[in-house]
# Entry
Amino acid sequence: MAVYDKKRLSRRRSLPEAKFMTRDYLTKILIVAANPKNTEKLRLDEEVREIQTGLERSKSRHQFQIISRTAVRPDDLRRALLDYEPQIVHFSGHGVGTQGLVLLDDASEAKLVSAVALARLFKLFAKQVKCVLLNACYSQVQAEAICQYIDYVIGMDREIGDRAAIKFAVGFYDAIAAGRSIEDAYEFGCSAIALEGLSEALAPVLKKKGESSHDGLHYRADFLAELNQNSQDSLEKNVEEVYRKINKPIDEMIPVTRKFPHKNIINHPANSPENYFSLKLSKPLSLEQPEGQVPLDSLFYIDRPPIEQDCYETIRKPGALIRIKAPRQMGKSSLMSRILHQVKQEGYQTVELNFQSADADLLSNLDLFLQWFCVSISEELNLPDRLDNYWKGPLGSKNKCTKYFQKYLLTEIAEPLVLGLDEVDQIFQHPEIATDFFGLLRAWHERGKNEALWKNLRLAIAHSKEVYIPLNINQSPFNVGLPISLPELTPAQVTDLVQRHQLNWSDSQIQDLMTMVGGHPYLVRVALYQIAKGRMTLGEFLQIAPTEAGPYYDHLRRHLLNLEKDPDLVAATKQVMGCDRAIEINAAEAFKLRSMGLVKFQGNAVMPLGELYRQYFSDRLQGGFGSIPPENIPEKTCPLDPVSGTNQISAIAENMPPTAPFSVGSLVESSTLAAIVFTDVVNSTAHMVANQQQMLELLKRDFELIREICQRYGGRVLKSTGDGWLIYFDSAVKAVACSQQIQKTLSKNAASLPPDLVLEHRIGVHLGDVFFSGDDVFGAGVNLAARLQSQANPGGICISDTVYEVIKNHLSIHVTYIGPQQLKGIPEPVRLYQINP
# Structure
């Protein structure tokens, strides 16, 4: 409870709680700190001292009282809140995201306190505590929980260093002492970090009561309280009963990982009930579509130290040049945007120019290209186009461009100008432009070493490919400045990203993902997005990833098309993908494959970046690299026979009579991923009872039509189900396109027939494993497809969520989501979509 001036006691209850910091109140600030002996040493004393110094210099210093407690245990925190009744609570120490804040146990070692426990504690002090500041890494999770009860809570959404944490605290309390609001104080704290030139200016996050990003998610503190009463030995026996009491299904119970993912943080065994189980959020995490640049405020951007900090420090230097090289989708543009944002916060002028936006005709004429370059930068700086003033006379295009910068752009603006030039690969394809343009950039960089005006120009250049154009060593910007080569994510960084997606994986599961995609940031994010969305399990992902039915269809096909243009590169790729160890190949092909991101170096040798590329290209390049089929509908090959190298199903089908159903009698037991189509006639029994002969003739008529359409789309009839067919496709896109054509054709024919000669068909489509054994085909994929056709509307198509995710970007379809459906014989509900052709 705040201490009030006795002379004004009668006014106390009439003041709004939001005005708790006025001259009539003594505002108490409780600073609690914890730095267990088995954790990285933090500068907590310095943080407290800096806060006190800032408040003492304030004219309002008599209105504030700081209570500081170090080496805080959970009991100490609770007692301090009771004893001092503070209005502001400041925590300084370690945080480990979803696993909690780090306090001390009785042995002065680390003890985790969860968001659930903290929320329950602060709920008891909601009337007096107005602001909680959690100055610890990854404390946004705790802020989310506490802000259910406290007006303002500040947490950190990423790692924050000592220096940045201290600067934020000083800026925050300086503003508080000056009588500014909590919102203003938060902004002052962020500004203090930015003014120091530190990269963590975006780390602090302000949460207000009732504005949780989880839409009012209620953390189940009652569950934790009851769980804490159980001993470790009886925990597993009692946990199901506890869940039942709070009406939570047992499958929402997940084990907490036993190791903290962040370096220099404790390795604390999960030996207490609150650390053995955690609750999944009752609503899904707000995920971002993993495409393009990662937004500046994204939870899913992973720093790759020391790269970001090196870039921030370098770009502040006069005449700086940074060149960022990495394969596509490795994060070049995301890093570029962060470099520009960092210096923009410090008052620099910035322009980001993507050369993919340049029209093709500009890249065939140096004069037009440099004019476009100058005008584009002028527009980004909100300056008028003055080409007419500077683009005249007998001077060459490069001199005119230099004059435009020197006498106009750099003179017009007083601040340093940072140009972010992205996708400069586009210029590599035009040597006549590239030689002069890149030589011009190098000349400007050299002038920036000695000439005051040119020192204000800073360059950041991003590209994917090796620079194969013939540039003079003294005229190339690619052998000066700070070189940045973006690496793949490390296992620790992938672990961090897994946890940010709220997936509770074991070390072996993370290793399985790493083995498949090799730490490629985009590939990792796509996998985690699909799995966190519940669209597939890790096991399903690992099975489908290296196929064109998987989530990497566009990515893999783009690489395949690029390889096809270069026979030497094809040969090198076949050699690398076919070997189970790193091998040496021609240096030119090795660097090209690395530029594409398909391989990694081990010394002078190369090997596939991951199993994704090994499996996909081993399949696609098998037997001499056949050309990609010309059909508009994408195709995925069926697995090849390990002895003959031929497609098993296709080979057998070629020997079958065109009107006979497909037989698999000669196959040994095997399996393959397949798009399965089940057809069925609506009310077939009634039709058969009414007129058996006519029904048989109608079935034959429709079956012949369906067979003919299936053959056009590459489908194979596996067996008859009496009034329907089981059909195999090696592409989900083809399966759905074929099903649409079947229903459209049947509908069109029905328009000219009497009603008694019309049969309505239902179709179900699923993507899954099919097992061949003897003369039969079976498996979960077959069973589920059979169930789907019964869910289809008459004349319609029902597809599973797995199929929808594959086809949605490749076919023009109108779907209706009918939600999760419990299907007979299928243990879990299946998300279904209806297609009405």
